[in-house]
Structures are given as C-alpha cells and as structure tokens.
Amino acid sequence: MQITIISSGSRGDVQPYVALGRGLQAAGHQVTLATHGPFEKFVTDYGLQFAPLAGDPRQILDGDAGKRLIEMGDKPAQFFKLYAKLNTPLTPLIVRDALDACRSADVILCPTNSFFIGEMIAEKLHKPLISLSVVPFAPTAEQPGIGMPKLSKWSAWLLVPFRHYHTMQVIGMQYFAACFIEQMNDARQNILGLPPRSRWLSPKLFRDGSLFLYGYSPHVYRRPTDWSDRQQLTGFWFLESPAGWQPPPKLVEFLAAGPPPVSIGFGSMTPQSPEELARIVVDALRRSKQRGILLSGWAGMTADELGDDVFVIDAVPHDWLFPQVSAVVHHGGAGTTAAGLRAGKPTVIVPFLGDQPFWGRRVQELGVGPAPINKRALSADSLAQAIGEAVNTPDIRRRADELGANLRAENGVQTAVNLIQRELDAIAKRQP
C-alpha cells in the first residue's frame, strides 16, 4: 500500500516518523513523509519518499516571536494563543501541500500535533486515517495528562473517584481546539470545500474514531485501563544512526581521554541568550567536577573558554553517544528522553514547553533522575546539584540501568507496524 505520513514541526517531531516509515517500508509498503523542506535530505537519506510542507520551523523559533514562544512555554494559555497566531499564515499553505502529498495514498498517518490537518485531508480525499502520538493524548480518569500536575495523596483520594483527571484533560483539549478551530475551519471551507467542523473535540473520538498509536513505552508510562481498544501503546520509535556514519575523530579522542562525560543539549529550544546558557552549563560542569559534551543544536550554545574538560559539537546520533556518557541533561523532548532512558543513563531535564515538563516529572517518578529544573530557576548551582545527584546516587544509576534494559528489549516500530497492518487488513475487508 501507499502510505503518507504528515509531520510538521522540529527535528524531534519528524524523527520518530522516519523510524516508523522505515519499518513500514521494510514490511512492503511505499512510504512518503510530508514535512518541511529543511528535512528533505534527512528523510531521503533513510530511503523514504519526501513531499514538501510549507514553512521552516527553525526560522520561526529563531525569530523574536519564536523565542517569546519558548519563554512562555510554562504558561499554557499564553503559549497556545501565540503558537496559533504564528501558525495562522502557514496553515493554508500546509493544508494545500498536505493535500497534494496525500492524493495517491491508500492511508494517511498523522501525528496529533497536526490532528486537524490530517482529519480534514482524510475527509476530503475519503482516505482512512491512523493517528500517531509520542505523548499521552486520549483523556483518562486514572492519571494526569500533559500539562497537568499530579494530585497530592489526599487530593487524589477526594477527586480521582469523581474523574478529576479526565475532566481536566477534556477541558484542556477544548481550549487547545478553541485556539486553532477558526483557522482550521477557514482552511476546510475555503481550500477543501468542506463544511466547518464542530468547535469541540469529543471524547468519542478516542472511543470510536481512528486507530491511535502511541510511540512510547508502558515501562515509562503505563496504558490506562479506561482507554478503548483504539488507543494502543507500542513502545518508542527509535531511529538508528545512518548507515556508514562515523564520529569525528576529535570526539572519539575526547571520550577516551578521561572518565565518561555528561551529555548536555537542549535540541531545538532557542533561548533568548544562548551564550548565557552556555556559561551556566560550563560553570555547572566545573562545580560538579564532571567532564561534558555540549550538543549545541538549534540553541546555538557556545562557550569561549571551555578548557580540556568540555567538548562542543552541533549534534551526534544519540544511539551512539548516550551509551558512552555518565548522564544526559536536556530539555525533555520525547525523543531525547527516550534515547537517554534506553541507554540506561540517569537523566536531568530542564523543560521549556509542551510535553517536556511531563517527561521531567516521569523521570523523577521513575527514580532515574532528580526533579526537573524549572527553566526560570536554572543556574550553575541548581544544574550542578542536579548533575551531582544524577551521577553520584547509586539508586538512580541502578534504576536507570534496569529501565534501559527493559526498553532495549522492546521493538516499538515493529509493534506499530503489526498494528497498522492489522488495521489495513480490517479496512480492506470492509471495502466492496
């Protein structure tokens, strides 16, 4: 079958679906990944077909508005309003591109961060839709969702029986929908000729709607028992290093020159002052008496006086680097969190926005790292203390090692491919 995956966002929003696409292609399907132009080579180097979507997320995040977006990441109401505003001019362009990319597809796969776009394209082209997510999305009464604090023991005793978590998650979904529904309905009507959709996201979507596959492990966050069979966990969707990739010789020399260093990087997060962030990181390493590898990434971290104990590089495949370090410090993106945990390494998370505080909380609850550091409280002292706790606490190292072994025993891509194939077979049986 011909399968098109729509994925919009940063590298971390694309990479899991490259991994999934490769698995589907190995199973005999033809896979096209529709995403932004800067990722074309990344997609095609892994053997998938590429279809362009308008926009360059890095240009957006590097601008003043993008940096404001990151700064207000811990204020959900303001964050989503600005995020919707930044997306408004791009939405019609992305919808047109996604429509072209999906015309020849037999089935469309779409992450929940592009939920409304996947929904309208599937409706317009009369194609089956399978939803994807790397974070919990469907509401549940059993545990807090993204952006929700965990109730204290006594509050939980009082409120959980009255479905507090479910209610708050549904309210959060309605707010999210309200931020985007106007621009999405404009695209539905003026580009696709479809009627406007309801302003509400009904919980029925998660009981009777498209199949939802979640690319994270039940060892990290269990599957709620009140989810319907349409919501399935598969394990993480890991992408291995490109064939023939070789590390820079200087990096290999640095790793061999002393004890395992701490890996520190913040992915696509672009703070107002990357220079100040770099200074905090280098100072924290020195205070904690640790060597470090700085993955500068989109954050553009630099430091003029590093010394022999700090190595700076733009990016390195996590599956190669993380097994060789003592701990990983990062922003808490789903993919980076998964890679660090699979490597069996203690984790320190400094969340900026979105699902990152959620993963920071899970790391602490699993006992594989200290409490996450609020970005507004980040300092050389707070980071040094967290690094020291992660590296020097035997129980944290032991739990991280045990969790890593469990994650390495899973094959989330193959599990997802099997579930998708089962869904495709069921679709084929229903067709005349």
Question: Please, could you describe this protein's structure?
Answer:
There is one protein chain. The chain has two domains: 2-55 and 90-236 and 410-430, Rossmann fold (3-Layer(aba) Sandwich); 249-408, 3-Layer(aba) Sandwich (Rossmann fold). It contains 18 helices and twelve strands. It has helices spanning 11-26, 40-45, 57-62, 64-71, 76-87, 91-102, 115-125, 153-159, 164-190, 205-208, 249-256, 274-287, 318-321, 334-342, 356-366, 380-392, 394-408, 412-430; strands at residues 2-6, 30-36, 49-53, 107-111, 129-133, 212-214, 231-233, 262-265, 292-295, 310-313, 327-330, 347-349. Strands 3-2-1-4-5-6-7 form a seven-stranded parallel beta sheet, with helices on both faces. A five-stranded parallel beta sheet has the order 10-9-8-11-12, sandwiched between helices. Helix 4 (64-71) runs antiparallel to helix 5 (76-87). The protein starts with a strand and ends with a helix.
How are the elements arranged and paired?
Elements: E1 2-6, H1 11-26, E2 30-36, H2 40-45, E3 49-53, H3 57-62, H4 64-71, H5 76-87, H6 91-102, E4 107-111, H7 115-125, E5 129-133, H8 153-159, H9 164-190, H10 205-208, E6 212-214, E7 231-233, H11 249-256, E8 262-265, H12 274-287, E9 292-295, E10 310-313, H13 318-321, E11 327-330, H14 334-342, E12 347-349, H15 356-366, H16 380-392, H17 394-408, H18 412-430
Parallel strand pairs: 1-2, 1-4, 2-3, 4-5, 5-6, 6-7, 8-9, 8-11, 9-10, 11-12
Helix pairs in contact: 1-18, 4-5, 5-9, 6-7, 12-16
What name does CATH use for the topology of the largest domain?
Rossmann fold
Poorly predicted segments: none
Mean pLDDT, all residues = 88
Overall body shape: globular
Largest sheet: 7 strands, parallel
Termini gap: 17 Å
Strand content: 5-15%
CATH level-1 class of the largest domain: Alpha Beta
Secondary structure class reads: alpha/beta
Number of strands: 12
CATH hierarchy: architecture of the largest domain = 3-Layer(aba) Sandwich
Please report the number of helical segments.
18
**CATH homologous superfamily heading of the largest domain:** Glycogen Phosphorylase B
Radius of gyration: 21 Å
Please give the share of residues in helix.
40-55%
Order of helices and strands: EHEHEHHHHEHEHHHEEHEHEEHEHEHHHH
